[in-house]
Write a structure and sequence with these properties.
The chain is α/β, with parallel strands linked by helices. The chain has 22 helices and 14 strands. Strand 3 and strand 4 form a beta hairpin. The termini are far apart. This is DNA helicase HerA-like ATPase. InterPro entries: AAA+_ATPase, HerA_C, P-loop_NTPase, T4SS_component.
């Protein structure tokens, strides 16, 4: 072929431009067709949900989910069939008509892979609307049979008030099978678990909202600040509307009465929660100080000594004062008297206290001590008040956070009366980041936790532990938890896989391959089993959780500070007080001892000085007496030597006496002697 012939066979630029334009138009037409199919699917879904809602409201047969063929249709499918609307097939109705193109696929064997389809059966659209699968392909991956779906729906039926968790998922949401917890069973405790980002916090918020709405007060620790949104109404959105409509949730925004608390004196983020050292007790304090078993028992002796001596332990400085006194000279005798406490152990505890206070823990202990009964309040409308403990810096002091929550729970057990089984609990206590409570805990501490959880139910208090995996909770505690909401678990490591298998073994038998399902759960989905109204475990249910009605975003810091300042509790607990306690009592005692010692030392010194003076005076007096005696002797000797004996027959010898006379001679001699010895009296 010639070059000119080859050139003639190539398309001209105009033809190439035309082909490109045709390709573009074809692509636009296909995109428009896909959008039409998607819009039709959305319309069909909305119509089905509307029909389901009408059927439930009317109490008609459509809400029972019975198909014309006698099978069970899931949720919207049943209602749509009754209303004459196109049916969107669900997992419980495999092979049902498809609204957009009428294609269908045979149901695969249960537990096996989906049936293969020919190219003509491949759907054009397979999209997700707000987390709800909307497709032209029949949903054939339903893990439960129709009978099992009916059993699940019957298992979660409730005659009394209940907390609505969500709806059953069986390939798709089954709106006719709601999953709920009977309100009377929430004091049987529970567990909310799951990997990070799977929806645990939203589940906690959902439970708190419904408890408050039913007049049950709630206490929860707000680790990341996300729960503060309970004080503000949620924000509607198209995505939220699509999700709630798909699961049959009648969603409307609402705020809930909320009180904000904070550990210590951070009044900007909450009303201060303080505890006295005596109220905290040696067991909990030993945990936050990291003491071993010997040191823990020794600290218990110190508390016992302080109680016997009437020494109030209000803050850490009081406890330091007691330990300082017992290790001082004045307290050594009393240290021996309490038995079993060595000076070395007391010194170790004292050093740990100083280090603990240096970390900023001093502000957590003191007065006024919070009365935990403030957590059991309702507002004027009868809604339970949600008490949130704001602890954004929990990573810095994890042991203190978890131990403080345990202290609050123990205080509730101490102050509340026995009520037995009640229609609704007096309080539900959410223990977030529960793994921090049990990590490195001593046997005595674990025993105290287990006993508190076991017995506090009779006080009308329910406890929900929130953590990542069930293995974070000891078996003795886990056995007390009647409700389980398990979000997705991850198995990236052999340890994760082992933990996953261990978690699966804690569930009752079900129609699910839980080891697989727990890894496939989407965000906002969970595996649920709870206690029914008759006290029996409900069937395991793959659940798509309802959306919270309050805001899922934290409220601004300014709004929180305003709410704290406006609280009726602020005036009572905001300002710390410093009553007379062990520090002042022992300080006065030690000062008195010091004063007495100094007085004794002064008296002893004065006595010694007086004795020395007396000794020196006695020596001087003795010397003077000796000198006088000697002078007298010398005087007498001179007298003897100057006077001659007289004989009776002879005449007086001539001499000084003869010249001056005897009296004059004596006066002269006496004057000479006195001049020599200085004994003459001055005139």
């Amino acid at each position: 072929m010639t070059a000119s012939g080859a050139m003639a066979s190539d398309p001209s630029p105009a033809e190439a431009q035309t082909d490109a334009e045709l390709a573009r138009l074809r692509a636009e037409a296909e995109a428009a067709e896909a959008e039409v199919r998607l819009a039709r699917a959305r319309a069909d879904l909305a119509a089905a949900e509307a029909a389901a809602a009408r059927a439930r409201a009317a109490g008609g047969a459509a809400s029972s989910g019975v198909s014309p063929s006698g099978g069970v249709l899931s949720g919207a499918a049943a209602s749509s069939a009754a209303a004459g609307a196109p049916v969107i097939p669900s997992a419980s109705a495999p092979g049902a008509p498809v609204p957009s193109n009428g294609s269908s696929a045979p149901e695969p064997p249960r537990g096996g892979p989906p049936a293969t389809s020919s190219p003509s059966d491949v759907p054009v659209t397979d999209v997700s609307v707000a987390g709800v699968r909307v497709t032209d392909e029949p949903l054939t991956d339903a893990p439960l049979t129709d009978a099992e779906v009916s059993a699940v729906a019957a298992g979660y039926a409730s005659d009394g008030a209940a907390l609505e968790l969500g709806v059953l998922v069986n390939g798709g949401p089954v709106a006719s099978a709601p999953i709920r917890i009977p309100l009377s069973m929430t004091n049987r405790h529970g567990l909310v678990a799951g990997a990070t980002g799977t929806g645990k916090t939203r589940t906690l918020q959902l439970l708190a909202e419904q408890l408050s709405e039913n007049g049950v007060p709630v206490f929860a620790a707000d680790i990341k600040g996300d729960l503060s949104g309970l004080a503000a109404a949620g924000t509607p959105s198209e995505k939220l509307a699509a999700r709630t409509a798909a699961i049959g949730q009648d969603w409307a925004p609402r705020a809930f009465p909320t009180e904000f608390f904070a550990l210590g004196d951070d009044t900007g983020s909450g009303i201060p929660v303080r505890a006295t050292v005596s109220g905290f007790g040696p067991l909990l304090l030993s945990r936050v100080l990291g003491l071993n078993a010997t040191q823990e028992s020794s600290l218990g002796l110190v508390f016992h000594y302080a109680d016997e001596k009437g020494l109030a332990l209000v803050d850490l400085s009081d406890l330091r004062a007691v330990l300082t006194f017992l290790t001082s000279d004045e307290g050594k005798v009393e240290l021996k008297g309490i038995g079993g406490l060595s000076a070395a152990t007391a010194g170790v505890i004292l050093r740990e206290l100083v280090a603990f206070a240096a970390q900023g823990a001093e502000t957590f202990f003191g007065e006024p001590e919070l009365d935990v009964r403030v957590f059991l309040r309702t507002d004027a409308t009868g809604a339970g008040i949600v008490s949130l403990l704001e602890v954004p810096n929990v990573a810095a002091r994890p042991e203190l956070y978890s131990t403080f929550l345990m202290y609050l729970l123990a205080e509730l057990y101490e102050v509340l009366p026995e009520v037995g089984d009640v229609d609704k609990p007096k309080l539900v206590f959410f223990f977030d980041e529960a793994h921090l409570l049990f990590r490195d805990a001593s046997k005595a501490f674990l025993a105290a936790i287990t006993q508190t959880v076991r017995l506090i139910r009779s006080k009308g208090v329910g406890v929900f532990f929130v953590t990542q995996t069930p293995k974070d909770v000891p078996g003795d505690v886990l056995a007390q938890l009647g409700s389980r909401v398990q979000h997705a678990l991850r198995a990236f490591t052999p340890d994760d896989a082992k933990a996953l298998r261990a978690s699966v073994r804690t569930y009752p038998d079900s129609g699910y391959d839980l080891e697989r399902v727990l890894q496939e759960l989407g965000t906002g989905e969970a595996i649920v089993t709870v206690m029914s109204e008759r006290g029996a475990p409900t069937p395991v249910a793959w659940t798509r959780m309802f959306a919270p009605r309050a805001s899922m975003s934290p409220i601004p810091a300014e709004a929180m500070a305003s709410a704290v300042a406006a609280s009726s509790l602020f005036a009572t607990y905001a300002t710390p007080i410093d009553p007379e306690s062990a520090r002042e009592i022992l300080g006065a005692r030690m000062q008195a001892a010091t004063d007495a010692r100094e007085a004794a030392e002064r008296a002893e010194k004065a006595a010694a000085d007086a004795a020395e003076y007396a000794k020196q005076k006695a020596a001087i007096d003795k010397a003077n007496a000796a000198a006088q005696k000697k002078a007298q002797q010398e005087y007498e000797r001179i007298l003897r030597s100057t006077s001659a004996p007289r004989s009776r027959a002879s005449a007086p010898a001539p001499g000084l006496d003869g010249l001056l006379g005897r009296g004059a001679t004596k006066s002269i001699v006496t004057g000479v002697i006195r001049g020599i010895f200085g004994t003459g009296r001055r005139r």
